[in-house]
Each structure stands twice: as C-alpha cells, then as structure tokens.
Amino acid sequence: MQTARIFRPVLNAGQVYARLVGSAAPLQSVGGVEELTLNIEEETLKQTDYSRAGGGTRAQVKRVSSVGMKAVLQDLNVVNLARAVFGTASEVAAATVTGEDVTAYRAGLVRLAHLSPTSVVVKDDQDVVIAAAGNYEVRPEGLFIFDNAPAIADGDVLTVDYAHSGYDLVQALTTAAPILEMSYAGVNEADNGKPSVVDLFRVQLGATKGLGLIDQEFGTLELEGEVLLDPTKTGAGLSKFFRVLMA
Length: 247
Prior knowledge:
By secondary structure, the protein is mainly beta.
C-alpha cells in the first residue's frame, strides 16, 4: 500500500483499449493516442444565510453533474472512424464486376461502385469496346473522361467490366451513439515507468466535431463522450463510473 506516498510527479504515456459494452469481443487497442482527458463537472446548491446582515452561505451541497471524456486519436482506422461518425463498418471482398452502367460526361469523373478498378473494359451502348487511349484514364476513384474523347460524348451510357481488390467500407450516420468500455494502460515516465490503469465502464461517444480530409499536419480524430453509470457495478465502496489503479 502506498496511500501515504506524497512525492509522485506524473508524465504519462500509454495505450487505450476499447470495445462495445456487452460485446463478445476483446478489448482492442485504438492505436496511437496523443491526448486522453477526463473532465469532471459539478453543480453547487447553496443556501443563503439570512440570519444577519451581510448574507453569506449557510450551507452548500456539491454534486457531480457529469464526467466527460476527450480523446485525440492518431490512427484513423476503420473501427475508430466508424465509431466517430456513428457508422457501420464492413469488409468488401475482392471481386469482378460485369456490366456496371454509368453515364459519362467529358472532362469529368465517372465514379464506379468499387475502389481501385483494374482490368477495365469499357463498352458503348452498341457493345463496342472503347479504347482507353485518348478517351479515358483509370483512377482509383473511377474513370476520368478526357475533354476531347473521340469515342465518348456527353450523356453516353456506357457499361464497365472490371476487377477490384478488397477494401473497408464505412457507412456514416447509420447507428446510434456507441457506448464503449474503455481501459487506459499508462506508464509514468516521471516515476520510473510505474504502471497505472484507468477503467471507464461505460462511455457514450459523441460524433467527431471535424474530419480532416486535406490537412497540412498529420490527421487526427477528436472524440468526446460522457462516462455513464454502470448498473452492473454493485457493492459498498465500488464506483459505478470508473476506477484508477496506481502502482
């Protein structure tokens, strides 16, 4: 026991693990985290002293109104992104596509249904193959039609055959705000690397306030949430919100 210990400077680093509350899944690392903060807010109820001139406070009660969590994630992986945009994540298997209909316009992009097409064959409405040279360029996002494409006119309906590799797909704003079980596993660099663990039993995330797509710095995901009561934690002296273990 180190309850009498006074000197304990802190400069923490560590990892954060998370999973959906109640899921049959392991606590998995969320990746790099450059900031993790708990913000405890309280409200104060005061009773004014009216027994004499000058007033003052006769009594007061302080109650915690909320425990907020803020995290800045360095890894925009599919799981983190899906949680941040209230989305669902899935894996799209590698496959071939035959006869995908598209409408083409010169000097612009024709989006295809899948990412990074290969072995592309484009045909016109007469089932005649259109050569890529001088007409279009294959890009990861689809086909870019040249402004002077001799075999393609604005509004032409084309069919495209192609192959694609597997990729991850996030459909945004398709689920309710996720509630996570989270654990912070830290080391105190200012105290010989002594470990500590903070278990957050139920954290309901809010949607990310911003998702940088073009930046001048490394991209991050800023997440905020609130630590909720966990009704499964029972017993005298046991927190229903979070606990801290310190070496």
